[in-house]
Automatic annotation (TrEMBL):
It comes from the Eukaryota. Coiled coil: none annotated. This is KIB1-4 beta-propeller domain-containing protein. Signal peptide: none annotated. Residues 69-306 form the KIB1-4 beta-propeller domain. InterPro entries: KIB1-4_b-propeller, SCF_F-box_domain. It comes from Prunus armeniaca (Apricot). Transmembrane segments: none annotated.
């Protein structure tokens, strides 16, 4: 007997609900619900439990004595892949079939704005007609969410040099900030919170959130993990000075394919002259230098780092 073919709109409800529970992003939920009526009724709209960005926090450094506010924005980086049979009249002949990397930021009103993928401050008012199709129907594109990045702004709208990481986990919604070499923590909630200093004995350079915990790295490569009780545990020893640790070295942490990487930028004056990338060996508590990126692309910005 031939196998019975079940139409997509007649799939069992329990199967659709099981798939829906594994959708973690707003993009995936929206595209799932757009298939048909039965799929839409099986999964509720994406529930944004966390406070809506931008959010504001309060900082008080050891100097100056006055408190000041910072605004944190959230950007989402997407990879848009066009369908193979895209109409040549709607796109330039030079458009790549590999698609485009776009960066979107949702404002207070919910309206998204598009930024340059490599800049947190360069807003795109118009899409280049020579590159993008005239109509951009996201239901016709394959959409991949690559990364989320966070940027801090001072009250005068200038970009802050502080590093920030955010945990959106319901078990520990929190913010960690590296400012003036010190690590600060505050709760993530609907109200403006004051950041408090976590540790004063080390000079930190960067912090990220990975699997519900915060990981911070010091200027010499020492790395620690911070748990919800704000206890620190050493996870990596310092990098040997003959491997590039110097006053002209800037460090960034990044999560890539379930691994924690450390990116070192060696500068001469204001210009980068060399990059080194290390992978965390959690068992031996050390950084292991990588010879290549295994096909990955790392975008290293002034205040953050992410992978494509």
């Amino acid at each position: 007997m031939a196998d019975r073919v079940v139409p997509w709109n007649n799939l069992p409800t329990d199967l659709l609900e099981a798939v829906g529970k594994r959708l973690k992003t707003k993009t995936d939920v929206s595209r799932f619900r757009a298939i048909c009526r039965s799929w839409r009724s099986s999964v509720p709209p994406f529930d944004q439990k966390q406070p809506r960005f931008p959010i504001r926090i309060m900082m008080k450094l050891p100097f100056p004595v006055n408190c000041f506010f910072l605004t944190i924005t959230e950007d989402t980086v997407y990879h848009l892949v066009p369908p193979p049979n895209i109409n040549s009249d709607d796109s330039a002949s030079t458009s790549s079939t590999r698609g485009w990397v776009v960066r979107l930021r949702e404002g207070e009103s919910g309206e998204p704005s598009m930024l340059h993928p490599l800049s947190s401050s360069f807003h795109l008012k118009r899409l280049p007609k020579s590159v993008f199709p005239k109509r951009l129907n996201l239901l016709e594109f394959r959409v991949f969410e690559l990364a989320k990045t966070y940027t801090m702004y001072h009250s005068d709208h200038s970009v802050s040099s502080y590093r920030v990481a955010i945990s959106l986990s319901p078990d520990w919604p929190a913010i960690m900030v590296v400012a003036a070499g010190k690590l600060y923590h505050c709760k993530l909630g609907p109200d403006i919170e004051m950041c408090t200093m976590v540790d004063t004995s080390e000079v930190f350079e960067d912090v990220i959130c990975f699997e519900g915990k915060f990981y911070a790295v010091c200027h010499n490569g020492t790395a620690v993990v911070v748990d919800p009780s704000l206890e620190m545990t050493l996870i990596a020893s310092p990098i040997s000075p003959d491997h590039g640790s110097s006053v002209h070295c800037v460090k960034n942490l990044v999560e890539s394919l379930g691994e924690i990487l450390l990116v070192e930028r060696h500068r001469r004056y204001l210009f980068p002259v060399k990059f080194r990338v290390y992978k965390l060996n959690a068992v031996e508590r050390k950084w292991v230098e990588m010879e290549g990126l295994d096909g990955r692309i790392l975008r290293v910005g002034k205040n953050n780092c992410c992978f494509f």
